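User: quick one, sequence for these tokens?
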């Protein structure tokens, strides 16, 4: 039946997002294996193909469409696949009693070839065991043996309805280990608790990926800082003045600014992601509703003591490279301004020199014009003299020398007027062309 109103095109997607990170109810005892693999933001296609390959191994039908999560039963093994922004997670659960919680990870029951060909790079591989409340309490010696004698952290969770222990280390089998004890959890509470702990572990790892990158970037930024100080000192020296020296300084500054921007382009998104993941870790820690177990650090105390400085390092590195880029930009602007002022001075000197040359050329031109008038008048008077001599030779009563002398001023005047008129016409034509 059609709705009597017009729906927003994203209405159903917005509601579906509320259920995109759902949990699966669990009933102790359970063993859980969890993998988080970085695949990038464009790895959906190959990850889905890999998931379908696993379903084919167990003879399951291939779904027509998968959004951000998918669950299925691979025989007696439960599968939950989830797609995050830049990584995917696989959670495998198996119900049944166990003696040693980490002796037989559920992942060992999956096809080795499928695990070997998993796309991306695994950032967390975790074995989690959910013990029943009916099992005897674990002694401290047993807990120490489960975690290879490493310092253990732990706390009561869900307001005392459960307990959780871990050492947050990678053991010889390649897995991190988390032990959870049910002390009154419902199936839904157990599912939510396990999911939050596994997400906490995955987001913790993703947040810490930015720390080695920040350390590498700080080495480059320290070198860039020293180079920037050296360039600034050279700019203040008197011998740094001059077009060649300023061009060299400008080249150095441009190269340095490009290197800083390249570092920022490689790391900014990673640092932003680390801060975002750290926020999720803090949220998941709050949702655990922890209470202290006497003698143990809580998960919050342990992670805050290590995560907070790491994320602070990422944040400070991001601010440092931003500040260094701004300083380099300011110095570049100052140097460009100085170069432009120098060019303006050179242009002004050049224009003054051109003006002086133009004045000199004008004077020379006027001199040449005067000489031209004299030359034209000389030749004109000579021609008129020949004319008068011819007339005198034919018997006309005229004194050729006297007549030639009288005509000389008139010829010179005519030549001068003609040159002036020609010059005016040329200037007028040039004016119209301009």
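Assistant:
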């Amino acid at each position: 039946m059609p709705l009597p109103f017009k729906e927003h095109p994203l209405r159903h997607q917005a509601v579906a997002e509320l259920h995109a990170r759902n949990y699966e109810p669990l009933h102790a005892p359970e063993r859980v294996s969890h993998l988080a693999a970085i695949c990038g933001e464009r790895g959906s296609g190959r990850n889905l193909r890999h998931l379908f390959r696993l379903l084919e191994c167990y003879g399951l039908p291939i779904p027509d469409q998968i959004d951000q999560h998918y669950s299925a039963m691979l025989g007696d093994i439960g599968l939950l696949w989830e797609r995050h922004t830049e990584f995917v997670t696989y959670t495998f659960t198996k119900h049944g009693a166990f003696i040693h919680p980490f002796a037989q990870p559920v992942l060992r029951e999956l096809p080795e070839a499928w695990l070997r060909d998993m796309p991306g790079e695994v950032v967390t591989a975790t074995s989690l065991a959910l013990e029943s409340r009916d099992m005897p309490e674990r002694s401290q010696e047993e807990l120490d043996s489960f975690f290879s004698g490493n310092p253990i952290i732990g706390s009561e969770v869900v307001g005392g309805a459960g307990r959780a222990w871990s050492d947050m280390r990678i053991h010889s089998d390649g897995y991190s280990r988390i032990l959870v004890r049910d002390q009154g959890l419902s199936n839904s509470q157990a599912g939510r608790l396990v999911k939050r702990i596994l997400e906490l572990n995955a987001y913790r790892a993703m947040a810490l990926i930015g720390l080695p990158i920040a350390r590498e970037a700080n080495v480059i930024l320290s070198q860039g800082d020293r180079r920037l100080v050296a360039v600034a000192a050279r700019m203040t020296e008197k011998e740094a003045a001059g077009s060649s020296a300023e061009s060299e300084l400008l080249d150095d500054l441009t190269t340095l600014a490009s290197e800083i921007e390249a570092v920022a382009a490689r790391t900014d998104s990673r640092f932003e992601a680390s801060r975002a993941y750290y926020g999720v870790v803090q949220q998941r820690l709050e949702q655990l509703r922890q209470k202290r177990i006497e003698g143990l650090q809580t998960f919050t105390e342990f992670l805050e003591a290590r995560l907070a400085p790491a994320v602070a390092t990422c944040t400070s590195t991001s601010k440092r490279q931003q500040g260094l880029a701004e300083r380099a930009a300011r110095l570049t602007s100052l140097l460009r301004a100085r170069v432009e002022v120098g060019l303006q001075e050179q242009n002004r000197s050049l224009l003054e020199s051109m003006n002086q040359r133009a004045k000199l050329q004008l004077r020379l031109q006027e001199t040449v014009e005067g000489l031209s008038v004299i030359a034209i008048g000389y030749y004109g008077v000579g021609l008129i003299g020949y004319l008068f001599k011819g007339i005198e030779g034919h018997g006309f009563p005229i004194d050729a020398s006297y007549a030639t002398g009288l005509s000389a001023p008139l010829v010179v005047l005519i030549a001068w007027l003609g040159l002036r008129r020609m010059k005016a016409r040329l200037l007028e034509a040039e004016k119209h062309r301009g």
